[in-house]
Amino acid sequence: MMAVYAHAINFVVLCGFTLLYGVVMDHTSKNLNHTCSENPSDHSANCSYRGLTSVPRNLSHDVRSLNVSDNNIFMLLDKSFVNYTQLETLDASYNSMYLIENETFHALLLLKVLMLDHNNISVLPISLLEKNCHLYLLSLYHNKLKRIPLIFGNNLQTTYSAKNGEDACGCKNLSRFYLAFNEVRLLEKGDFVALRNCSFDRFDLNHNDIKSLPRAVFTDLPAVHLLINYISLVQFQADSFLGNKAIIQVTITASGIRSIVPMNTSEIPRDLFPGITKLYLSRNELITIPKYALDGFEKLQVLDIGRNLLSSLYNGSFCGLKSLINLNLSVNKITSLPRGSFACAEKLESINLSLNDIAVLDPQWFDGSHSLSTLRLYESNIHDIKNIPWNTTNLQTLILAFNNLNSVNNNTFVGLKNLKCLDLTRNHNLVDISVDAFEETSSLEKIIMTDLVKFTMTGSFSNMHQLVFLDMSYLSSRLEINSRGQFSHTSALRTLNLSSTYIKAEDLVQFKSNGSLFSGLVSLHTLKLQKNLFYDFHHVPNAFTPLWNLHELDLTDCRIPQIDSGIFRNLTSLTDLLLAKNLIKIIPAKAFQDLQNLRNLNLTSNYITVIEKQLFSRTSSLQYLYLQNNQISTIDSFTLLPTSLKVLIIANNPFTCTCQLAWFREWLDKVNTTIDKRSEIRCSSTSFKSLRNQTIWSFHPKDYCGVNIYLIVGVSLAIVTVLSLSILTYQKRWWLNHKLFLLKLAIIGYQEITENQVPEDYEYQLNLMFREDDEWWINDCMKPFLQGRMPHLEHIVFGDSGLHPGSFYLNAIYDVIENSYKTVLLLSNQSVEDTWFMTKLRMAVEHMNDTKLEKVILIFLEDIDDDNLPYLVRLLLSRNKPYLLWVFDDEDGQELFWAKFEKNMRANREMNNVIPV
Ligand SMILES: *[C@@H]1O[C@H](CO)[C@@H](O)[C@H](O)[C@H]1NC(C)=O
Ligand SMILES: *[C@@H]1O[C@H](CO)[C@@H](O)[C@H](O)[C@H]1NC(C)=O
Ligand SMILES: *[C@@H]1O[C@H](CO)[C@@H](O)[C@H](O)[C@H]1NC(C)=O
Ligand SMILES: *[C@@H]1O[C@H](CO)[C@@H](O)[C@H](O)[C@H]1NC(C)=O
Ligand SMILES: *[C@@H]1O[C@H](CO)[C@@H](O)[C@H](O)[C@H]1NC(C)=O
Ligand SMILES: *[C@@H]1O[C@H](CO)[C@@H](O)[C@H](O)[C@H]1NC(C)=O
Ligand SMILES: *[C@@H]1O[C@H](CO)[C@@H](O)[C@H](O)[C@H]1NC(C)=O
């Protein structure tokens, strides 16, 4: 039964639909599809571009959003929407509407957005929108309205509508009201009465034909932002805004205003003064500003009179503007101003006089402007500044960029005791900046003087204790540096830009003393030296050593051919080192050894052929390494690439894809590092034939070089070592036992050897074995300790340098182990992977086994995973405890360490367990 009923309804709806469809067809052009597309899920219907002449009647009754724009609808009738009571959004723009009946929208109690723009509407009925309490946006632009439409009920009634309560609420929620591009010529006070209880964010009357704004016309307009741009005003009458407190911002730009007519404030009660805080009058035709022009605008904070034809002002032009903070007078024709032009506006903080035609700037213009902190005079054709003291003692920012200043001397800035920022960029005639030019302005924090023609550093900056930022980049000739100590007391400077100043490497160090130009810059964070001429860079290894706070060093495009291994010494804070576009071929292995905070290294576009194995051994923070466009053909096995690396670019290098590169090729597959520009990493013509010009990714070492060729190399080396060692031990067995015997005899007779050996019995009292990379620990920690606490040890072997010269390496090692009272080995993650180091360790352990004395101390510089420890070491540690763990950053821990070490040094105890080797 239900099913049959439902079918019946379906049938009715379908019939109605077909019927209507037919009707609509008859009235309109034949090649359009007249059916609206309805979307039931969001209750919308799109009927635009359907050639409709009336609102369709066949739509679902619960439609909430209806678009009938771009049709040929002429009229909206009272009945047009009676069935669409759920409508919230209605777009009827771009039609030919000229008539809308007075009750058309009365059923649409939920309507929020109504678009009626681009029609032919010239009048609208009074009660049109009086029921639409939820209306939020109303657009009526591009119509033919001659007056402000009265559509929210009878304006005379609204005065007592509060009494009736209900009805006229059409604009209660209306926030945006667009009336631009109509034909409104006349505005009258009564036009806005009906809107009195509304509140608009924007009320837009742009592009109308309004010719005047009568006194107090806006009294009842409750809009925050009023736009009346592009109208035909000739006079701006200050009294137009009397009585209005709602309007905060007014823009009347490009409206042909030629004069401002002040109001006679003495006759007007103060509570009628306008509440406007921002007034934009740019792009008008004002020639001058009369005295007291805007008197009464007591709340005005921002006044923009830019892009007018102003050539003169009075010193009373801005009187009455008690709150004015920001004044824009840019792009006018001002050549000169009266003394104290702005003194009236006592709160004025910022004046923009850019793009005027000021030949000679006179500081007296600003006399009395005690709050002035920013003065912009950008591109104003200034060639001279009168040598008269400035009276604006609070001025902090002075922009003089893009002018024609001839000179700046000790008189130019007299009075500016609080000046913080001075911009002299691009004054092409400015070749004369005297030695004491900045003497009067020692408060300066920022000096920008890029793009000058000539400049000589005469030590002017050395006493500027406050200076934080100095930019002298893009000088047209070589920066001259004529004395020492340019920055000796510039201790606050954080950014120094000397890019493209034609300086040479020799300029970075000072005459005779060979000290660095940068001495004294203890706070320097960023040093930009791009595009200079550092051919002799390797001759100035001291240039940067004073800059231990430096974070960024930019040496891009400086023609650097060669780098001294000490040049970046002491730059322990450096995070960004930019060396791209130079001529560098080789970087010494130790060049980056102090850069433990380096994060970003750009070596793009150099001629680098080799990456030293240990180059990155100390840059443990390196995250971004850019090596593209170099001449790298191979990367040696076990080259140290930091695990911190996030991004590596090595594209465009002539890689030789042979087995020598196998290790690196496999490293590329293993790491988490992002390898960018992958498709540009190619095998060069020196590669295996089938790989030439292929990407490196088509090189699979297993296919070409057998299984892990480098592993085999490593393993066989180990085997050879062990073999040669065994032979050695075998050969020396008798001699060894004999010596041991004699030793026992000499010291303790036939008793068990216990704690009776003394260091003096040995040729060396201490033998330190370590990998070259760990030498810093010996220098920084061990040596000071030995000097301080164990000065009696006279014969100490420090690594390989203490070995007997001239003998076979293995022999020399064996000799020193044997003849040392104690042998200390430094273990780190890197050292346990070093074949030679492990050989030494094995020899030491074997020797210990033979002597059965605890002659070996292992010092762990860091925690090493058990898996990474060779079996031999684990075995040794499990049975004996001849090891110490160094603790960083913990003084107590270090004290304990040294105490244990001292104890260990006291005797060679007998071993608990012998290791089966
Ligand atoms: C007209 O448009 C509707 C909705 O987009 C569609 O369902 C119908 O098939 C179209 N009719 C023709 C004749 O193209
Ligand atoms: C409104 O809908 C009813 C029922 O569907 C219909 O009879 C009536 O003609 C519709 N009115 C208009 C003006 O579309
Ligand atoms: C709409 O206009 C008609 C005739 O012009 C008039 O009778 C009716 O009262 C008006 N309705 C309203 C709400 O003003
Ligand atoms: C600066 O102006 C104030 C008031 O206008 C005046 O009293 C003072 O003498 C002036 N100072 C100089 C150095 O001109
Ligand atoms: C500025 O320098 C000139 C000469 O260089 C000197 O005569 C004059 O006293 C200086 N003025 C000030 C204010 O230091
Ligand atoms: C290196 O930096 C230290 C501070 O870390 C500083 O005291 C020292 O003067 C610098 N060395 C040179 C040669 O400037
Ligand atoms: C490295 O420096 C070059 C030259 O300044 C620049 O073009 C490139 O973008 C830099 N590379 C990266 C990844 O920042």
Could you please describe the fold and organization of this structure?
With 917 residues, this protein is of the alpha/beta class. Among the domains are: 1-209, Ribonuclease Inhibitor (Leucine-rich repeat, LRR (right-handed beta-alpha superhelix), Alpha-Beta Horseshoe), CATH 3.80.10.10; 220-317, Leucine-rich repeat, LRR (right-handed beta-alpha superhelix) (Alpha-Beta Horseshoe), CATH 3.80.10.10; 561-706, Ribonuclease Inhibitor (Leucine-rich repeat, LRR (right-handed beta-alpha superhelix), Alpha-Beta Horseshoe); 709-741; 752-906, Toll/interleukin-1 receptor homology (TIR) domain (Rossmann fold), CATH 3.40.50.10140. The protein is 17% helix and 15% strand. α8 runs parallel beside α9. The longest helix has 40 residues, at 709-748. The protein starts with a helix and ends in an 11-residue tail after the last helix. Residues 545-546, 548, 570 line the site of one 2-acetamido-2-deoxy-beta-D-glucopyranose (NAG). One 2-acetamido-2-deoxy-beta-D-glucopyranose binds next to loops.
